[in-house]
Amino acid sequence: MVRGYSENQAREMGFDRSQYRFPDTAGKGTGTLTMKIWGNKCLLCYFDMDDGAKIKLTVFRERVHNRYFQPEKSELDLAEVEIGSFMEIAYGITRNGTAKFLTAKV
Question: Is 66 part of a structural domain of the chain?
Fold first, then answer.
């Protein structure tokens, strides 16, 4: 299993990141994890939601062990979740207006 791809690998695979947006309102829903791309100390997760939305959410290393990529209120390591997995996710919006990945469940 691949924990995540580089931007170049994703592009070579034909993945079009331009279709995906960070949410601008809090929400939750179900959808398919379609891609995982490594960022600077983070993992960008791309979802095709059941309602037709295409969203991306960033997950950072958890602070205690510094090796798991978990949403803020979840113990699921997204780096270990297979691309193509059906998931239930929740996200919020910070005071700065950026999306915050809260929970994830396979």
Answer: yes
pTM of the model: 0.94
Q: Identify the domain containing residue 76 by its residue range.
A: 7-105
CA nearest to 71, candidates 20, 18, 28, 11: 28
The enclosing domain of 37 has a CATH number of: 2.40.50.140
The number of C-alpha atoms within 13 Å of 37 and in the hemisphere containing its C-beta is: 20
Query: Is residue 1, in this structure, part of any structural domain at all?
Result: no
Tell me the C-alpha distance between 7 and 15, whole Å: 9
Tell me the pLDDT tens digit for each residue of 43-85.
999 999 999 999 999 999 876 666 789 999 998 999 999 999 9
Given a contact cutoff of 8 angstroms between Cβ atoms, the answer to whether 71 and 87 are in contact is no
| Residue 105 pLDDT | 96
